[in-house]
Structure prediction request, 919 residues.
Amino acid sequence: MSPIAQPNSQVSLNQESLLRRITARIRQSLELEDIITATTAEVRALLGTDRVMIYEFHADGSGQVIAESIYENRLPSLLGLNFPADDIPPQARELLIKSKVRSIVNVATGMIGQSPVHDLETGELISEDICYRPVDPCHVEYLTAMGVKSSVVAPIFHQDELWGLLVSHHSENRTVSEDELEAMQMIVDQLAVAIAQSYLLTQARKKAQKEAIINRIITLLHSLPTIVLQPALEAAVGAFAGVGGRLCLRNQAVESQQVASRSLAECLIPGNDCVQLYTCGQQPITPEQTIYPLIEQYSAWQEHYKSHHDIWAIADIYQDPTLRTLQAVFQPTKIRSILIIPLEYRQQLLGYLTIFRNEIDTETLWAGRIDQDQRQMLPRVSFNLWRDAKKSQAQQWTREEIELAKEIGQHFASAIQQYELYQQVQAFNENLEKQVQKRTLELRHTSEQQQAVFGVISKIRESLDTNSIFQITTKEVCQLIKADRVSVYRFDHEWGGAFVGDFEATSPHWSNESKISINTVWNDTYLQNTGGGRYRYNETFAVDDIYKKGFTQCHIENLEQFQIYAFVLAPIFVGQKLWGLLATYQHSGPRQWESSEVNFLTQIAAQLGVAIQQAELLNQTQQQAQKLTQALHNLQQTQTQLIQTEKMSSLGQLVAGVAHEINNPVNFIYGNLSHVSEYAHNLLTMLELYQQELPNPSVEILEQADEIDLEFLAEDLPKTLASMQIGVERIRQIVMSLRTFSRLDEAEMKAVNINEGIDSTLLILQHRFKAKPETAGIKLTKKYADIPLVECYAGQMNQVFMNVLSNAIDAIEDYQEAQSKTHHGEIIISTSFGQIRDNIQSIVIRIVDNGPGIPEDLRLRICDPFFTTKPVGKGTGLGLSISYKIVVEKHGGVFKCDSQLGSGTEFWIEIPIRQVNGN
Prediction:
């Protein structure tokens, strides 16, 4: 076949048609084999070459032809053949991986083309065109040996890793166009999508297969009225394609009540009969005369699971030195690989599930025999088939199989308890007539116990207070199981602790002097050294007789000190943390605790932990609510203080500024008035001398004297200057009062005159006392006592006076507007001595008005932040709240209000004369 070059337009149409067909194939099917088979045929038809194949790489670098299309047998088939990793030199593999080049080889011209071309050092693209260079002679000889004269190779990538190659071979010389090379690249890109989809399909199928296996085993374990383990074992062996398996379990049905807690290792001691074994398929052959009839009894088994609790995957038993003693029992068989799955329930080893696999024979079909000598460095000239057959190969356990084993082991372990219960029932049924009455009593007792448990639980849940919970629990449990004492013990952070709950039964059989009570500290060195000991593992510890348990003499003496001869300790868990113990004591003597009693105490301890957790959560919630309330209160206080402080600061600055600006010109006038008075007096004296010396003045002087009324001027000018002197003095007093009120330079506590502070405040408010056209004025009465200087924050106290007086004036004005415009308002201010708490000398300031009064429900709230009865824009509700804090919190004083509707309101302000303890 000699392909005829097609026009570019025809090639382009063929490419588009080919891509549509391949894309449609990918969308129609997710089966990779169908896709790659159709792809090779379509590509060969497009290129018109003798052979197109898809080559997949293995993990070791070798590869296999997995799809192929050949035209009329022009070239031999390579489908299914494997090629060694050496067939692709390292430098060529590096180009495929790093640069993703597509290569074209023409044997006749001895040239190889590559596109695109990247720099191997920097990874930068050098050229997208086909770049030709001489081909390696070894490569030419290799292709010639295969009967190939023209070759095109495009790498296939999956998840950025080299997955395989799309290869086109032709037995004659052939020129490859850039369009054909681009078409192959498009097909390779579509193949990458198909491979990714196929991988996802494979993973989904494996997951579904795994779930089906697990569901089948779960069905076998749980669908029957009683658990039947043999079919489940056979299903587990089949899941791993095993040839045999074993299920070795601790058999509690044959154990007595006294030895029911024996471990699996104790049960596997030769001579014991407390092991149940299930087998299927091939088994190891143990000698008839041996002390270890079970392979699970060998020391290798026990030694491994002393320090390991996971799955033991043994790929080759003859390569593991720890299994040397076990190899003899497997030598007569073809078993080579073992998977040992430990079955654990509540951290207790219950048994082993073991899967066996035989050794296998492997065969690989290679394209030519590989000789490990110098000739291997040359291209192979023979492609005769060679089968690499290996006998007795071990099968590796895959990660997926180990994960599956973990899940199967968990389901087996969860069914063991039911299985052991079934064994016990089977053992009891052997002597059913003798056990009927006993079983009936046990069931009745169990029912009563459950009712008792529910009763105790319901009473516990009636309260969320821990002390009440402890009291109810200890009392109810003590009375129900008729114990001498039931206590609740709580661990501290060092695993010591103290009793936080206790109930003692009244008994005539012992002295009731056990020395156990609430807050009794008991530090056990064993618990402290082990961080909670056995109780960390949720284990309840019951002791019938302290003298028969093997305790140390020191431990016995400690128990005797508290008159304890038998006890049950059940762990209390709050969440996942060991919180304490529910302790039941017998002081009157030894006692054989029944399993139902121990179970009852265990259940109560578990419920007690839930109740404690709920109580703690409630307490935390309440504390958080209190913190939020306090934070809101603090925020309101902060806002109140900021607003009022800014307000008073602005007012103080304004007052101080006004006082300062007035003070300068007033001082100027005041300083010059004395000189003006003196000058006027001198002038008048001089004028009088002129009149005496010149008794007959001219007509013009007489007319001017008459015009200015000289006699009146001489008489009134001194009076005018005296009035000006009084006015300026009054202005100076006002300025001093303004400065006293602002006290911007007195932020710290100091001794001040309270009466002066009140007067300075009144000076600011004096305009509000005057009568207006629509309302009468307000009368002000001051009754000041001769009081000493008082240590206080002067500016803040002036702020208090301002707030209280402003509210009193507002109340009278509102009353006048609403009731009677002729109402004569009056405010009485008095200061006096008093005595505050602990006989501390104080100053009392009383401000009384005859306004309308305050209703009782509003009077109780007047000091709340932001509470106001004034219209919007007239009041902020902060004044009295700030005043209360200044007097009470800043000065340790008293701020209270008394009021009678229709009679008026009195504010009582009292602060110590001397501050104590930094108030």
About this structure: Confidence is low (pLDDT under 50) at residues 1-7, 253-259, 373-377. The longest helix spans residues 595-693. The first strand starts at residue 51 and ends at 57.
